[in-house]
Automatic annotation (TrEMBL):
The keyword Chloroplast does not apply. It comes from Cohnella nanjingensis. This is Homoserine dehydrogenase. NADPH binds at K105. It comes from the Bacteria. Transmembrane segments: none annotated. Its cofactor is a metal cation. Pfam families: ACT (PF01842), Homoserine_dh (PF00742), NAD_binding_3 (PF03447). Its EC number is 1.1.1.3.
Length: 428
């Protein structure tokens, strides 16, 4: 049995997990693919760095081209991250007939179509299951499990770092900055955690899911993004009073042939399965016209969960090699992309306003809502002893994003509304 040779690019959190699983589960892997899987070279930035795993030092290289140009290597497993030079390295690896497994959502969200086209041209596989919701097999599920259906909604907690932070803020009243440091120490966060907390990581993942789910090339620029850095302990406490949890949700929706994709902190009604997804766990809710509601749950980041998906992709590549069918995946995006306008995007909203505490203010606010045809579901004025002015918590029925923008513009000009403290989309 000729071994399948793998060039591993990256030996950080995920790369270390890949080595552990390939070595620790070798017998089971061989049983499935009838060949040993051997990691023959490993790319790192610094060969001298101390590692949490023992590897043959002779396999380490700091030169990516040593892997790309090695004719013995069949598959490149890319778990180093990055976009610019990583893309060039991946394209050259494909040019030389190497299959690719990657966990890199940045790369696949920005350059997925180009990389997949090159793979097709060269008869190579490119698999990227770990790029979205680390340990949940959601990409394969959307491509294969839902191939017979028409998906109408994909809604997910797809960033483990922010879910970890929001859970600790909600359950323990913890401070944002402290919990972020914990998530970094646990290996959940990106090398620049701004992309986690500002929603960009989730937006990249939603770009990938929407492209697959709606079978049209969605790009990152199509995603409306807001992160969690403005979420306050006060918002979370008011959410609890109204029966909600605050979650960073990616929401991709399709109506007729028009789609919208967004990422934002969202108030999710307790009782909706997404509201109870806590810590580093991710969940992706998928609604299909025929199947109805489904949900997929599991760890979204971390060494072994993410490496499980990477090595499963590696097994898929080797099985295809045995069958001689690499690069034969059907195209996932054959539809024309049509984006919804703000008039077509509808949701319920939660607003927290700081207003003047005097007669007639509520009337002025109600008039603004009425002018833009926004129907109010409830209004609450919590007691704020000793505070100047009053707080108003308003929830609306489903309204268009365009109408809500007009309402917010009108509030900004109203002297009785001193601050628009928070605006949240509401789900569930
Ligand atoms: N961490 C997680 O839970 C998840 C991560 N991902 C994705 O997986 C990828 C890897 O993430 P993670 O393991 O956390 O990252 P780490 O920062 O822990 O590891 C990156 C590894 O790649 C090496 N590396 C980085 N840049 C270069 C370079 N230019 N040349 C040579 N080697 C390089 C580093 O070398 P050295 O060790 O010498 O510094 C390190 O071994 C990213 O794309 C990330 O988005 C996806 C899902 C979950
Ligand atoms: N930083 C990411 C890692 C997995 O993709 C996250 O927190 O989800
Ligand atoms: Na996945």
């Amino acid at each position: 049995m000729k071994p399948v040779k793998v060039g591993l690019m990256g030996l950080g959190t995920v790369g270390t997990g890949v080595v552990r699983i390939v070595e620790g589960h070798q017998e089971d892997l061989q049983g499935q693919v009838a060949s040993p899987i051997v990691i023959s070279k490993i790319l790192v930035k610094d060969r001298a760095k101390a590692r949490s795993i023992s590897v043959d030092h002779g396999k380490l290289t700091e030169d990516p081209w040593e892997i790309v140009r090695d004719p013995e290597i069949d598959v490149v497993v890319e778990v180093m991250g990055g976009i610019g030079s990583t893309k060039e390295i991946m394209l050259e690896a494909l040019e030389r007939g190497k299959h690719i497994v990657t966990a890199n959502k940045d790369l696949m969200a920005m350059h997925g179509p180009e990389i997949l086209a090159k793979a097709k041209e060269k008869g190579c596989d490119v698999f990227y299951e770990a790029s979205v919701a680390g340990g949940i097999p959601i990409i394969r599920t959307l491509i294969e499990g839902f191939s017979s259906d028409r998906i109408t909604k994909i809604m997910g907690i797809v960033n483990g770092t922010t879910n970890y932070i929001l859970t600790k803020m909600s359950q323990e009243g913890a401070a944002y900055a402290d919990v972020l440091k914990e998530a970094q120490a646990l290996g959940y966060a990106e090398s620049d955690p701004t992309s986690d907390v500002e929603g960009l990581d989730a937006a990249r993942k939603m770009t990938i899911l929407a492209t697959i789910g709606f079978r049209a090339n969605v790009s990152l620029e199509d995603v409306d993004v807001k992160g969690i850095s403005s979420v306050t302990q006060e918002d979370i406490q008011y959410a609890h009073q109204l029966g909600y949890e605050v979650k960073l949700l990616g929401i991709a929706e399709r109506q007729d042939d028009f789609i919208s994709v967004s990422v934002q902190p969202t108030m999710v009604k307790r009782g909706h399965p997404i509201a109870s997804v806590n810590g580093v766990f991710n969940a992706v809710y998928v609604h299909g016209e025929a199947v109805g509601e489904t949900m997929f749950y599991g760890p979204g980041a971390g060494e072994l969960p993410t490496a499980t998906s990477v090595v499963a992709d590696l097994v898929a590549v080797v099985k295809n090699m045995k069958l001689g069918v690499n690069g034969r995946q059907a195209s996932v995006s054959y539809k024309e992309k049509k984006l919804k306008t703000d008039e077509q995007i509808a949701s319920k909203y939660f607003l927290l306003l700081h207003v003047e505490d005097r007669a007639g203010v509520l009337m002025q606010i109600a008039q603004v809502f009425s002018q833009y045809d926004v129907s109010i579901e409830s209004v609450m004025q919590p007691a704020t002893p000793g505070q100047k002015g009053a707080e108003l918590i308003i929830s609306t029925h489903a309204v268009s994003k365009a109408s809500m923008n007009e309402v917010l513009k009108a509030f900004a000009e109203l002297s009785s509304v001193q601050t628009i403290k928070s605006v949240y989309r509401v789900e569930g």
